[in-house]
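Appendix B, Record 12. Input sequence as logged:
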Amino acid sequence: MAVVIPASQVGAGPVSIPSQPLEGLTPVSPPEVTAEAWLLWDDTFERELGSVLPDQARAMASTTKMMTALVALATHDLDERVRISAKATAIGESEIDLVAGEVWRLEDLIRALLIRSANDAALAIAEHVGGSEAQFVRMMNDKAAELGLQNTHFMNPHGLDEEGHYSSARDLLSIARAGMEDVTFAEFVGTRSSTFPSSPTGEERVAATTNALLSTFEGAIGIKTGYTAEAGLTIVSAAERDGRRLYAVVMGSSDHFADAAALLRYGFDAFGLLSVIAEGEPIASQRGPDGVSDAVAITDLNYFASATDDVDLVLGISEEGAPIVVAELGEEEIGRVALDVADPQPLPGIGEAFAWASAYWDWLWGND
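Logged structural output:
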């Protein structure tokens, strides 16, 4: 509703319009999750939406493999042939069942790494790309330094528990964002299942993703899960809805899928780009001796907000002497829009005033 300003107040200084919560979002509270550390990030608007211990260094389990893939994709051709070593086949835990001596394309190994979370594929990649596991781990740590990670150190390419192997929720987010810039990486982490080269004995290899959110959460696009006894359940998840991409990083969880889904849902429901001022919207009216002049916004003003944000609109005059409306959140100015003042409209006569008042009371009391 526009504010009516008497002519005597024009030019006397700013006039505030009472604040109201922005509409269009669900005012939900941050969810309670089992994760010991987490971070929720809006990638579209580059805004942290919530976190708990996001910089705490912790065991990261198979989210390690994001960096393994990132290094391999940045340095080698996907069509390269990789001969599988006996060491790679003996790593244990989650595997794609590689057989010593067989030859795979690097691309297929990276798919197995990101979809099946295959430890044997991780070690095979490391030996091929780095020449040795130790040299590849140095490449991983060099990449971490290049990305500016403050709380990350790698000791292996697969993520099995090892002293000195750790990361934080914020650093895992940085790795994930870097990985998702690569179209191959993004395709693989968003794949629900894939067929791999048959075994030397002719047995078919088919693997489903370890990321259940790809099937259960609307808009999920990836990216990587993990579990070890020390790390607990971990996940870096991402989803897109209505033109926004969110990341939820969960570490030390007892139910990582539920935690990530709750955080993503909260991010989509409680935050969004909302219209603060709409083009053509009457912001204020000036009542003068010649009638009433409406001041309307000449452009839109949108703002990324939460459901609980209260935005104040303050009428004022620009340095050039033109009427403006300034939008403020707390003490922060979030934008300003110039106003167009229309020609004054005549004030209603006494008959029109009584007719309007009668209609108003009919509406108020529900009369037909």
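The first strand starts at residue 3 and ends at 6.
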